[in-house]
Amino acid sequence: MGLSIKKELRVLGKHSSVYGLAAVLNGLVGFLLLPVYTRYLTTTDYGTLEILYFVVTIISITMSVGIGEAMSRFYFDRKEQSERDTVVSTTYIGYGVFSMACSLALVSCAGMISNLVFDTRDMTVECALVLATMGTNFMLDTGFGYFRVAQKSVHVTIHSVSKLLLTISLNILFLVGLDMGVKGILLGTLVANTSIGLVMTIPILRKIGLRLSIPVLKQMVRYGLPLIPSSMAIYLIIAADRYFVKEYIGLAEAGLYTLGYKFGVLVGTFVTAPFNTIWYPRRFEYFNEENSEKMYARIFTYFMSVVTLGVVAVSIFAPDIIKIMTTEKFWPAFQIVPIIALSQLFHSLFYHFSIGISYFKKTIYFTYINIMTAVVNLSLNFLLIPTFGIWGAAWSTVITYVVRASLTFYFSNRLCPLEFETVRVLKLFLAGGIAYLLGGYIDTGSSWLNLIIKIGPLAGFVGLLYVLRFFTDGELKTAWDAIGRLRARFSDRMT
């Protein structure tokens, strides 16, 4: 059993690190351009962008008819590579045709949508740009999905780097060079996504062929349709708070909340998301193997170790990084970062708790869970944001993810009993809480000095785990052996 865990960890580490690099590269667009955005955009502009993305994502979820999510599940149901290729090709055709048709229809209604969302038609061009981007994104969604199920992690990185460089170049050209404001960012995204999508799609279709299987398409739609209200509910959980902030407090506050939120979800972007891209499909391969539940439990513990460390790091470093990278008008955003980071810890639980539901294809449970959670989230936003502003939005997010994780555990555990190393995980949370208290309130008056000093409490997280007897004898032995090998290599080089 130990060997199987080590082997799986090596596979997960290899591919997750590459997917993590891809996520970092995609996330770098926002961070590398943050000093530019905060100087060429107002907080109101920032809020406007977020509301546009909110609206278009809601529409995109419906347009996908769940086919994209179904691809990875049906891909592994097929044993022959030709059958797997047919699943991917069918996804391209079915998802693509429907997406493009809907996008064209919606672009013609951009003025009406602008009036509905912003109470003015002044945003017609902006709405048209995001709706057009939505129509071509099926190429990116399906292409990256194919690379992940086929474990072509290097391809993910190559195309992510290309998209990163092109997006940055176009954003600087349109925003700084041509002073196009929000329109420039949206136009740059449209050109970059469409270009990279075509570069990905053409070689893939040449390799797998262009085949449409109506039976497979029907099965995928049947599997995916229950996921639409579920996915809709998920996105409402994630993004509805910004719309409430905009309605009750204003676009400027929505912009501040969005910036703080982007920092808070870094753990989800750079740890949870890349890990799940490889672990989500692979866990189905081991479901029926002997003692697989023990392997799941151990991998969950290691994953939570990284997530907890990430939450602490984001929480204590983000305030100083925001002050360094942005202008003073954006500084209040740092206040909500620790709360949003905490929400990401609970958010990550969902992906591990849901294995029974996914394996037995009881996707209707996801609909129940996410709709119930969305109702909780919308109710909390309605009650808390008018009184507590962005603080109310942040705490609504935490409570929502706690409820979602609890419901997922309940339903999935009924189908498949879940096993976890509960005591070890609680020790992780205790060590993380202490590390945050030690580092979160350091303020010397210099952001650069704060960053240096805060490395101490972050490093102390590992020491706290040792004191709490978190590590097993086997893990300590492996760690000391690794340190010994490093020392030996260093000594050999010195001599």
Give your account of this protein's structure.
By secondary structure, this protein is mostly helical. The chain has two domains: 1-32 and 241-495, no CATH class; 36-224, no CATH class. The protein is 84% helix and 0% strand. It contains 23 helices and no strands. It has helices at 2-32, 34-40, 43-63, 67-75, 81-107, 110-118, 124-136, 138-149, 153-177, 182-208, 214-224, 227-248, 251-264, 266-285, 292-325, 337-353, 355-359, 364-388, 390-415, 422-439, 447-453, 455-467, 473-494. The longest helix has 34 residues, at 292-325. It is globular. The mean pLDDT is 79.
What's the structural blueprint in terms of helices and strands?
Layout: H1 2-32, H2 34-40, H3 43-63, H4 67-75, H5 81-107, H6 110-118, H7 124-136, H8 138-149, H9 153-177, H10 182-208, H11 214-224, H12 227-248, H13 251-264, H14 266-285, H15 292-325, H16 337-353, H17 355-359, H18 364-388, H19 390-415, H20 422-439, H21 447-453, H22 455-467, H23 473-494
Count of individual beta strands? 0
Overall residue-averaged pLDDT value? 79
Q: What's the shape?
A: globular
Helix proportion of residues, in percent? over 70%
Low-confidence stretches: none
The number of distinct helices, counting runs of at least 4 residues, comes to 23
Radius of gyration: 23 Å
Summed up:
This protein is 84% helix and 0% strand. It is mainly alpha-helical. It is globular.
Keywords:
mainly alpha; single chain; globular; 495 residues; 2 domains
